[in-house]
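Take a look at the protein record below with the fold in mind.
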Amino acid sequence: LNLRLGNCRESIEDFNRLKSINAQHKDLSMITQAQSCAQLFDEADRAFSSQQWHRAYDIYSELLKSIDAPINILQNRAFCSFQQGNWYEAIADAGKILKIDSNHLQSLELRGTSYYILGELELALNHYKQALKLDPEHTGCKQGHKLIKKIMKTTEKYENALKGGQLEDGLKHLNDLLTIDPEHSLIAKKTKINIV
């Protein structure tokens, strides 16, 4: 059971205890699998610590083939995907975690940030709100929530100015949008197109 749950080191200890009780037990053949699992965990942790995101992602994926998706492996793989710019994979793995633990703050923040990067502001905002219900002082989620609200408010001002025929005000609001998060490529691109 420990092996299926990803508790490789504990599994090795269990097998060693079993071996001391019954050296011929049929389950002892699985000790090499437990040792391989522990070795993969060590390799994944080293790759993750040294920010070798692609390698760490591959090892976590390999581990998930034989383990019943523990949260820590999914979380690390989601983070590796995020660091590589694979937003949809990060969202998917964080979503798997949320199905196991709907209050997992790191997954809510990771999904919120990924959705934000993809320009899915409503989805991002919903994830940040859910996280802030659990921890109103969560720094990353507070910042993300505040940023999105500011973008939405400025976008609304721009749209209202256009509806009212106030083109100069609309242009000012578009320029304001560019200064809110100039690094956000989708928002900047859309805003620049609207300015032209």
Remarks:
- The longest helix spans residues 139-163.
